[in-house]
Amino acid sequence: MAIYKEQDFSERRNAANEARKALLNRFKARPAEDDPEVLARKAERQAILEAREKRNAEKEKLKQERLAREAIEKAEREAAAEAARIAAEEAAAAEAKIREAEETDRITRVLADEAERKAKRDARYAARKARGGRMPLPPRA
Questions:
Q1: Structural domain tally of the chain?
Q2: What residue spans carry the region label Disordered (predicted)?
Q3: Residue 120's domain spans which residues?
């Protein structure tokens, strides 16, 4: 097994100081704000943001157009369904009127037939009364 060597306080302090120095050197090595590379990266990021905003605006525009088109199509479908419903109701009402007229005609014919039969019966009764008295019974066989 490897022997574990503990670092003492001074070694840890030296390591921390060196890490701070490396961080400071890295910060100092960073290019300035007016450096062409920094300006180029900044311009590139700005172009990317503008392109993203443009795409998002275009997406939103297309979405609004699609929603408007769907709303128009839905309104047209509802209008067509309403027209079909009204036409079906009118057809049903016309059919009901025809059935009612047929029923009324049939009732009128039945009442006319009954009145005619009653008139014939009354005429037979009146003729029998006019002949006077009773009808002779048929002879027995």
A1: 1
A2: 112-141
A3: 15-131
